[in-house]
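Marked as duplicate of an earlier ticket. Keeping the data here for the record.
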Amino acid sequence: MCSGVRYKIKKTVQVYFQNPYAQLPILMKDGNITLLQWGRRREQEGNLPQGCCCTGQVQPDTFFREFS
């Protein structure tokens, strides 16, 4: 498990879940890549679990594809 990721979309970006503005690249069904907020923070309302995968962490093998 990790609390930070590095990805490349035009330039290399390294983000950590602890950053409230952290975003991750998501490949949409139409083939476009969009950046979405990483997880839900404790102070945010909603029905989804807090964090990403309930702990604010993501499986490293989830990010198997490098976008350029």
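See parent ticket for discussion. The longest strand covers residues 4-9.
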